[in-house]
Write a structure and sequence with these properties.
298 residues; 18% strand; Chemotaxis protein chec; alpha+beta; elongated; 49% helix
């Protein structure tokens, strides 16, 4: 999940365009981490030193680690350590952007430091197992734009939403900063309510072409037209996510919540009595819009 939020971090600072980021997220899945990128992240080498080794490699048929040891930048033990630890996924995204010429290694080094500082990700974070605490920081920092503190249940809801998108749709997405929403013009929109001590109405909206690709990924099949199977798949994803959330809340807090059946929104313009917030999620195949309207928070 770190890469998805790192992508938004880069977008918000105008480091990349949305198209550049989408392409980099797609390429990331086929790339392998380079030793030089890992050395920068571990603070074993500076960006300038890594670039020097890359230049050396154009003149010598030797591996990066061999040259770094020869030049005194790394020890054998450090090379072994870096080869075992492949680092966080956002580092791979940064590497792709360097390879594409969008940023250079010095920019990547500065951006890593800034991103870790902003999200309280220190050098001791175990990126192989995203901890509840570290992801909570990411979610809370991300939603600062809504200018309202998130309740504990909202944080849990959003953590699960991002996890479920990765698990069932794919990790090649970037969330865009959420913003307050009192009205919303619909495309194909489905909604569902969670009721109880924590009450929230969730809307998921997308164009028909985006819905076809979303449903294809969700069920692991190929849909060619916007039909009842596509529509049912989107309803099922929303129902699955909200059902899992209710189970988590019951297990972790002994709070029982109720879930209404998913409904297709037929109106072209939604209006909300309670202010909601719009959360766009950008995939290569299109943008998914989540509208979250919380009526009872906890």
């Amino acid at each position: 999940m770190y890469a998805q939020f790192f992508g938004n971090f880069l977008l918000s600072r105008n480091i990349v365009t949305c198209d550049q980021l989408i392409q980099a997220m797609k390429k990331k899945s086929t790339e392998h981490m380079k030793l030089g990128t890992l050395a920068i992240h571990a603070s074993y080498m500076t960006a300038k030193e890594v670039d020097e080794i890359y230049i050396e490699q154009t003149h010598q048929d030797k591996r990066f680690g061999e040259l770094a040891i020869k030049d005194g930048y790394l020890t054998k033990a450090q090379v072994t350590e870096l080869l075992k630890d492949q680092g966080p996924d956002y580092l791979l995204l940064g590497q792709v952007l360097v390879e594409e010429g969008i940023i250079d290694n010095e920019q990547l080094q500065s951006l890593i430091i800034e991103y870790q500082s902003a999200n309280e990700l220190d050098d001791f974070v175990d990126y192989s197992e995203e901890t509840q605490e570290s992801i909570q920081h990411l979610v809370e920092n991300f939603f600062v734009a809504t200018e309202r503190p998130l309740s504990a249940f909202e944080v849990s809801f959003l953590q699960l939403l991002f996890n479920n998108l990765i698990r069932f749709i794919g990790d090649d997405f970037t969330p865009v900063y959420p913003y307050p929403c009192t009205e919303y013009p619909t495309n194909y929109c489905v909604s569902q309510q969670i009721l109880g001590e924590f009450s929230i109405k969730i809307f998921i909206d997308m164009t028909k072409s985006t819905a076809i690709e979303f449903a294809s990924r969700y069920v692991g099949d190929t849909f060619d037209e916007f039909d009842e199977y596509v529509q049912s798949s989107i309803e099922d994803f929303l129902n699955l996510h909200n059902g899992l959330f209710n189970v988590n809340i019951s297990n972790e807090h002994s709070v029982e919540l109720n879930l209404t059946p998913p409904e297709r929104e037929m109106t072209e313009l939604l209006s909300f009595n309670n202010e909601g917030y719009l959360l766009p999620i950008v995939f290569p195949f299109g943008t998914i819009h989540f509208i979250l309207v919380v009526t009872t928070s906890r």
